[in-house]
Here is the input.
Amino acid sequence: MKLSIEWLKDYVDVDDIQELSEDLTMSGSEVEEIEKPFESIKGVISAKVIDVKPHPNADNLNICSVNDGSNVYTVITSDKSVKRNDFVAFGLADNASDVNGKMVRSVDIRGIKTDGMLFSLEELGLESHSNYVFKFEKPVELGKDIVEILDLDQTVFEIEITPNRPDCLSHIGLAREVATVRRKKLRVPEVEIDIPKGNVSISIESKECIRYLAVKIDGITVEDSPLWLKRRLASVGIRAINNIADITNYVMMETGHPVHAFDFDKIPSSKIIVKNAKGGEEFVALNSKTYTLKGGEILITDGDQILALAGVIGGKDSGISQSTKNILIEVATFDPVRTRKTSKGLNLSTDASYRFERGVDPNDTLYVAKRIVRMILSLSGGKISGMEDLYPKIVKPVVVKLSNKKLSSYMSFTPDPQEVFDVFNMLEMKVSKDQTSWVVEVPTFRQDISQDVDLIEEFARIHGFNNISSIMSMPFIRGNKNKWWDFKNKMRFLLTSLGYFENVNYAFSDPKVKALFGNSFKESPELLNPVSPELSIMRPSLLFNLIDALAYNVKHQESDVKFFEIGKVFEADNELEKISFVSTGKIEPLDYTDKRMGSLLNFKGDLETIANYFHLDLNFTNEKIDGFMNGQCGKIILNGEEIGLIGELTEDIRDFFDIDLAIYACEFDLEKMFKAIRTFEYKPSSQYPVSFKDLSMFVQKGKFQASEIIKLAQNSSEYVKDVKVIDLYTGKGVPVGSYSITIRITYGSMDRTLSEDEIDGAFSKLMELIEKTGIILRKVR
Amino acid sequence: MDDFEILAQTIKSQIDKVKDLDDIEKIRVATLGKNGNVTSLMKKISTLPSEEKADFGKKVNDLKLKIETMLSQKAASLKMEMLKSKFLERSLDMTIPGPLKSVGKIHVITQVINECVDVFSKMGFNVVEGPEIESVYYNFEALNTPQWHPARDLHDTFYISENLLLRTHTSPVQIRTMEKQQPPIRIISAGRVYRNDYDATHLPSFFQMEGLAIDRNISIADLKGTLESAIRAILGHDKIVRFRPHYFPFTEPSVEVDVSFEGKKEWLEVLGAGMVHPNVLRNVGFDPDIWQGFAFGMGMERIAMLKYGINDIREFPRNYLKFLRLF
Here is the structure.
């Protein structure tokens, strides 16, 4: 909403612009910008035409000599109405600029060079289109700045009006706010005039038309509005069209009530019938566009022909034109929801629909009608023919009760009753008081107030939130520990200590990436209105965007990238929290003494480090997974349940992201891991020394699994305390298709030092068990 | 110069050339050893006539002593040199940069969330979470924002279906909490929210933190005190905070909270807040004449940007290591 300060001063006294801005902002109408709409007009001065002669080389042009009081300049104009002794607005080349900041240039028009140009109201920003240059009606002092003469040094506030305050979408509404904050008098325009009923026929057939008043005025003259009116409209961003259209806009910006004018002679049946659209009708609006109606829109018709889309826009055929003589002025109120549906449905938002969908007061109808009729009679002549006013269901002011107790409880102090009374009273509420409560009748232009808290807000915002003291001692409350939240943070610390950087990616994904992973992830919800096709599904896995981020970094000169992310992934009707991590490059990128490249085995070690930290044992399957290299991936198993997957990504995926390096990726269900964690109870450790035995063997890949051998060792004797892999080797001396693995078995007991015989016995038994499986033992130590 | 002196000279020049201890030993054997030339001279004494014995014997002894001294001095200096080179070998130039271990970083958004959680936790707010795909009811209707309400214009919404959407704010968590828990309630909830708005200053998904306090007598003054102290704890105790009236459908009265940074003239909006609307309380079955309280919502990216002077919101989802390493 644009607020002209000069205009505002009609209704309330204003002292200081900065103070006014502060008052409005701190009472809820935030001033976002303080603008000077005509500030680009520079160097345009008053001048007198002293000579006019035809251009020797062009019939449609005249050459004029103008005098600015000190010099005489040559200008060329196509406006043949410019006569000797006319007072005009002249801009010197390279010196003057128009409302858009466009500089005047000297030009050569068919052999004659100009010194500058004559300005029209269009170039001064006061008209949407000008056919003639601007001429002063009366002689003016020469060489004077046009900004001064036409009073164009205007200040305008751009104000954010919240959706609950349609009453503030008007100059009077904002003046009321200012008056209340500063306890000043509000002056609304005097409108007394008698409008006799009759000569207008209206019928309302739509339930969503709350009130419809129409006044017929005969014999008006459509012409240009006076300058002051053009200037006010222009400063709030509305370009002048003609006096009738301008007055309707003016009254809307003044009162907040949208008003419409029809050319009465273009209403074939001379009757107004308000009804709802059936759907499928076509309507040509004032903006020359054709709309096909969806059905349900409120229409202003003559019974047959659509004259206007109620509350949104008028029709082209029934609009005001230069030849219009008799007019019908509409002051109506339409249902907010219905107006919003119409506006959204046709994708057409206007100043009128913006106000109606927020709520326009039906009870100011007569005032608005009288105001506009008076303005029309004074600015375009004519005579009132009559009017009709239909108001099927009167909207009555609501009465709201606010208990002293609640007001004090919300404010944390007991406000001065005089101040409370003043605030409500200034806001035009009828205030009374009983023993315990304020009883307030709320004017119908304040449809946002219906409950006690709404009144508390009125008091609080006028009193000033910053004038309420702060309390820093809320009542004690029992605190809870959110272990799940803490677990996720613990996970973050673990991953970062392993060298992984946390990512926070979008939760949208590219369906193309999902396709590359075949059946590895479940179907996820699709957006009806995505920002782009690449962000059109909810992520079924954190991996997609994590790989994308990894690729982005690799392409930006980062060769070693380790990333993780914790976040929601989405299934058809479920969302669950997962963790993913990916890695490419060296194991220790910053350690120049360690040049090893990462491998799947090392990557898997990172995962097992995490599990180990929480005392969890993971198992793995060797199986094919879409998106991962065959033979280099598997599922992660925790307590017999599948919780995720791990492996090296396929070349297809690397190609898609244009990466030429091995990428390892892992993802698992975070909640499943969280639930598996047991609180650990203290157990004393054995006082007696333990013994170690190492065992090396060749294992044929695909025939035995390392996990089976470890399990075998673990269960081989009650003395086995721990089994660990201490070496893994393939290459020279190891049969093709096998690997050499060395395990270290720790033997011990809680109550004594084991004898050598006991240990050897247990170890021999283990060797036997292993050899029985067909595995070849290498050496015994 | 007699023969002894010549011999002494010769041996001295041999010793001077010696580079290691083995050669010293060789010279000792060659001179003072069983068959060494000085030893042979000693043996010769007994064969000499007695008048020559004393003089010859003294000279041989002197020579022997001289050689022994030279040998032991040389040995000591050789040992010293060896020790020195051994020390040098073992020494470390302490100015060589040590090889580093890679340690990752927690994303700045998570860090800011955790910091806010810490601050509010100390004031008794408990952490809760809620779903990101929400029903229209929880996101709008339960929050006093019916269909066709103009306030819905403020939320460009992503839809999954007619009835399911991506939550546009963390406020549905208020409803979900109040449905499950009786007052007194004091919760915060941080998480991802979505708006269909993508340009240089808006992300289609970003992070918010919601707060809710419901009790018998919670006032606007409590709202102010809580948010003022939290904002100062998070952004710095030198900050000035102001409360400006605003509108949200689910709070009444509503405010926006601005912060002023030293050296900057303008006020920067950091959060929205207000007293929970009685309609919202009624929707979850609380009697607004018994229970009242406040709610607030703040943008985490905004806080991070103010805190660290980040001027491009698109840095957050880009996850570029050069950015991630900074925090």
About this structure: The mean pLDDT of chain B is 92. The longest strand of chain B covers residues 205-215.
